[in-house]
């Protein structure tokens, strides 16, 4: 078991994601990403590969362990899309609002709204070693925006493990008990020796090619 580093740099400038990770893993001393480090081009083609690109860049710039993640929403009716392109579903200039709008339009009139959310978390060390963890949650895409909390696709994703509410209708604590990111981060924390209860879920691994590294 790898020991828990004194400091870990978060390889993201997304304030919502930073807050969520800190909420999920309060026992870890996270350091903010240096402001002078530019975003990397996420062109690895897999969630693991994209997370590795981001973690590598921050680890190289700081000399400290770096934690990155990448998330994909795999929608049955869309043949697994947007998958690894989830953040850019609405195009190169996409944002959360545009992505949600495009998803609702793409599924307009569709009865099969099943979807799988996957987060891959990757911790890169200065010696080149890494730890990889994955979290998944099954759910459905809602027919309209729900709630006002969260970020990303939270207003339209209703997890099967919940009580019928979308992520955006939950408190941060409620979301942190069942979300894909929480499961990935808690699994990674356990590998580091920070014991945490991790909810397990059986999911169909039909989109592994987009999730797994191509190394």
Overview of the structural elements:
The structure is a single chain. With about 220 residues, the chain is of the alpha/beta class. It has one domain (about 10-210): Maf protein (Alpha-Beta Complex), CATH 3.90.950.10. The protein has helices spanning about 15-25, 45-60, 95-105, 170-180, 180-190, 210; strands at about 10, 30, 65-75, 80-85, 115-125, 130-140, 155-160. The longest helix is centred in the N-terminal third of the chain and has 16 residues, at about 45-60. The radius of gyration is 17 Å and the shape is globular. The model is unreliable at about 195-210 (pLDDT under 50).
CATH fold field value: Maf protein
CATH class: Alpha Beta
The profile of the biggest β sheet is: 7 strands, mixed
Q: What order do the SSEs take from the amino end to the carboxyl end, as H and E?
A: EHEHEEHEEEHHH
The helix content, as a percent range, equals 25-40%
Apparent shape: globular
Mean pLDDT: 88
Tally of contiguous helical segments: 6
List the helices and strands and how they pair.
Elements: E1 8-10, H1 15-24, E2 30-31, H2 47-62, E3 66-75, E4 82-83, H3 96-106, E5 114-124, E6 130-141, E7 157-159, H4 172-178, H5 180-191, H6 208-211
Parallel strand pairs: 1-2, 1-3
Antiparallel strand pairs: 3-4, 3-5, 5-6, 6-7
Helix pairs in contact: 4-5
Entry keywords:
alpha/beta; 20% strand; seven-stranded mixed sheet; single chain; 215 residues; Maf protein
What's a quick, concise take on this entry?
With 215 residues, this protein is of the alpha/beta class. The chain has helices at 15-24, 47-62, 96-106, 172-178, 180-191, 208-211, and strands at 8-10, 30-31, 66-75, 82-83, 114-124, 130-141, 157-159. The chain has a single domain, classed as Alpha-Beta Complex (Maf protein), CATH 3.90.950.
């Amino acid at each position: 078991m790898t020991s828990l580093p004194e400091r870990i740099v978060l390889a993201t400038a997304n304030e919502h994601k930073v807050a969520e990770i800190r909420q999920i893993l309060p026992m870890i001393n996270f350091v903010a990403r240096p402001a002078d480090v530019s975003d990397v081009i996420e062109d690895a083609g897999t969630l693991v590969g994209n997370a590795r690109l981001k973690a590598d860049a921050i680890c190289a710039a700081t000399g400290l362990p770096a934690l990155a993640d990448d998330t994909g929403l795999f929608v049955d009716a869309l043949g697994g899309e947007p998958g690894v392109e989830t953040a850019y579903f609405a195009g190169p200039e996409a944002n959360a609002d545009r992505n949600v709008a495009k998803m609702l339009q793409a599924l307009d009139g569709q009865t099969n709204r099943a979807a799988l959310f996957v987060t891959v978390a990757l911790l890169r060390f200065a010696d080149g070693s890494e730890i990889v963890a994955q979290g998944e949650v099954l759910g459905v895409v809602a027919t309209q925006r729900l709630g006002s909390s969260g970020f990303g696709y939270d207003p339209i994703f209703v997890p099967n493990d919940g009580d019928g509410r979308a992520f955006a209708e939950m408190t941060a604590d409620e979301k942190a008990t069942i979300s894909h990111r929480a499961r990935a981060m808690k699994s990674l924390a356990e590998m580091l020796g920070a014991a945490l209860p991790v909810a397990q879920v059986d999911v169909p691994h039909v989109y592994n090619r987009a999730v797994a590294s191509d190394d």
